[in-house]
Amino acid sequence: MNVPKKVKHFVWKVCKNILATKENLWRRNITKDNTCEVCKKQVESIGHLFWFYDHVKEVWYSCKLSLSFEIHPSRDYMNVIWHLQKWEESRPRLLEWMVKISWGIWKDRNDIRHRGRLWSGQAVTRSLLCSLEEFQLANERLMANAKRNHVVKWALPQAGCYKVNVDRVVFSKKKQSGVGVVVKDGAIQVIATLSKKQYSSLGPLEIEAKAMEIGVTFAMKVGVGDVTFEGDSLEICNAIHGLTIVAPSVQNVVTGILKCA
Fold this sequence. Notes:
Residues 2-60 form the Reverse transcriptase zinc-binding domain. By secondary structure, the protein is α+β, with helices and mostly antiparallel strands.
């Protein structure tokens, strides 16, 4: 799974049922109260914490992940992981996203306990997915640097076709992003270019998706057909081809790109 090591360690604790939930702390005589920190009604067990109270249901609804099986109160977390692994081939990265959201729920629960701060389900999901997108993009760059001795050359489009290259840059201090688009033909002649700066509070992967969307829209305005689009985000390329699951906000942009194409 392409997740931080702390998330993998967290999942190991959940599957072993040794996470510091109120129920587990109560069993060890560390606390006299085993009530859920959020709902204040039920015992804070692993199952209750991740599935069965109003706030956590709001988090799962916000991330819009659909499961092919129902989670019952009697089903433990290890059993859920086992079922997700069975669907890994047909639903790639579903298990990975489930683990990420679970970690976000645990992080949110600790914020409530120690700071008394309760975020909305949508805010929890958005904050989590943005931070993990940054982690994955950083990993992509590390892998690219590790393969820097491998020369990748720009390939010509086929005769009569065009290639549209898209790139983006982020100005984090100014909360701005920039997008560059270049359209070339088979003779490597530049047909049109676009440079655009915009104010944005989007996450890094959302900006990558928006950059591709701008490139597609620009190619339509220029009036070129038989186009190959090229960008430097493997995550977005895989999402466009339906090979990976991305955050709902990114998927909305990808859906718009596919409709334009």
